[in-house]
Amino acid sequence: MGRESAGANRLPLWMSGSAPFTESLSRYLAGRRWFAGKSETLRSTEVVESIPIQTDENPAFLLFVRVGYASGSEQTYALPLRHVSPDEKRPEAAPSTSGYLVEGGRGGVLADALENRTFALWLLRTVKEGIESAGVAGKFIGVPAGACKRLLDAPPEALDPSMLSVEQSNTSIKYGERAILKFFRRVEEGINLDDETGRFLTEKAHFEHTPLVAGSIEYRREGNPPATIALLQGFVRNRGDAWKYALDSLDEYFERAEQSGNPIPPLPVKAPSGRRLAESEPPRDARNLMGGFLSAAGLLGKRTAELHLALASGPEDPNFAPEGFSQHHRDRLLHGITGLAGEALRLLRDNIPHIEPPTREKALCAIAGWDAAFSRCRQLLERPLTAQRIRIHGDYHLGQVLFTGGDFFIIDFEGEPERPLAERRAKHSPLRDVAGMLRSFHYASCAALVRRKAQSAGAALLTGPLAQWACCWRRWVCAEFLRSYLSAADSATFLPRDETELDALLNFFLLEKAAYEVIYELRNRPDWLPIPLDGILELVEP
């Protein structure tokens, strides 16, 4: 294991907490896509850690910046910054610190170090060689995995770094066609699920349809759990995510549907649920109209089942061993859906006067049907379940799957970011993932419809022949996905042993997901409210 010190790189003067610097930091953070506190009122900004990074170029530092909000909550973010002289050609600059970072009499600004080739290669070497870099309160250390040497065994030109333009809750650096490093902007102590799950799938389950994990970079502070700062994975050459693939396929499907001369789909659009959905067989006309995406949905169902089988393949590892549903776990499920339903119903009732008439009718029907739906939920959870709980993806939808052109790779095992770590790491029925993907197909069919009709979601989703064609596509795609999933996972202990329980448990998670969507859409995109309402009505109607 290597060790590097800052040498001549002094700790910068901003550690004294100068007001102009922290004010510029606040402005910079507020403008970043990955900053999660945009809806909060910022109360304070403080640099709590500075780790000098030894490179051959200008000084660089990894800063940990803690922000406090008026609500009383706090978050910490990782900012790798490098000094840029005034005459150096540079990308978009980070906060101007002229007069606050002065090395050898030079002025300049700070820029995002991840955009710098030398710094990006230093991060790669940190993982590969297990390099340690000391900070004020802790240390930055590379933790290579078993696949690291194999992945990075390539000439330097094959590992040339470039920062990806797509930026969400993390920033990614691609190293040629070999590796990708995800730099987590939010600093959270404790187990990183993407790292933990990825290493299990790579090293123990040997699951081939997720990027292999080659190592990570951690921040360690004595007496505290480590925080994962970056994760190094194998790069998967792809054509985009499955969401993009679905939307492109839907565009072609709508073209063929309009050219068919049939204004109405060649089948009922009302979809059965549970195993009855999986037993449905699309007619030849529907298969022809949907093209290759129908078989692709079946392949995705198979890969999803293989993922769950892999996650259930470690009975000797208590973190991954399958477990039964105790009364406690059933009570927690019921408590969770009761809370979601209560919030969804409250928001629906409060917003009824503001919802447009066609959608208002759906909302009123959904409200009227809740009692019967939750009566079935209670009946399901009042008796023992034959299914088992396992570790699952936890935030499964088309955007979490890469399409290679002929296959699928499943990515991002961090779970829903707003949920606590313990909850994201808990074991659940894998049918929760299945429900998430089925709901994602629903959203894809509607998003493509909106894009095609080039108008607001509310109007586009409710009327017209294309809306019926969208329902037709969704029915058969969901059926193909579910049929393939159940076939591939047929003997798994995590599935219910009887069809009645399987149907009830799957419908439970579909209802849970749709209730969550109602809350989200009412708060963020009211025009999209018809989508979860339709999902609910399919479950509450006889």
Radius of gyration: 25 Å
Largest sheet: 8 strands, mixed
Low-confidence stretches: 5-11, 96-106
CATH top level label of the largest domain? Alpha Beta
The computed structural class is alpha+beta
* Beta-strand content bin: 15-25%
In short:
By secondary structure, this protein is of the alpha+beta class.
Secondary-structure topology with pairs:
Blueprint: E1 3-4, H1 19-30, E2 42-53, E3 60-69, E4 74-84, E5 109-112, H2 117-129, E6 132-134, E7 139-144, H3 148-152, E8 161-163, E9 170-175, E10 179-184, H4 193-204, E11 213-220, E12 227-234, H5 242-259, H6 274-278, H7 284-290, H8 293-311, E13 323-324, H9 327-351, H10 357-381, E14 388-389, E15 401-403, E16 408-410, H11 421-425, H12 431-453, H13 457-462, H14 465-488, H15 499-524, H16 530-540
What does this protein look like?
The protein is α+β, with helices and mostly antiparallel strands and 542 residues long. The protein folds into 2 domains: 3-234, no CATH class; 242-540, Aminoglycoside 3'-phosphotransferase, Chain: A, domain 2 (Alpha-Beta Complex), CATH 3.90.1200.10. It is 44% helix and 16% strand. It contains 16 helices and 16 strands. The strands form 4 sheets. An 8-stranded mixed β-sheet has the order 1-6-7-11-12-10-9-8. It has a 4-stranded antiparallel β-sheet with strand order 2-3-4-5, with helices on one face. α9 (327-351) runs antiparallel to α10 and α12 (431-453) crosses α15. The longest helix is centred in the last third of the chain and has 26 residues, at 499-524. Mean pLDDT is 86; it is low at 5-11 and 96-106.
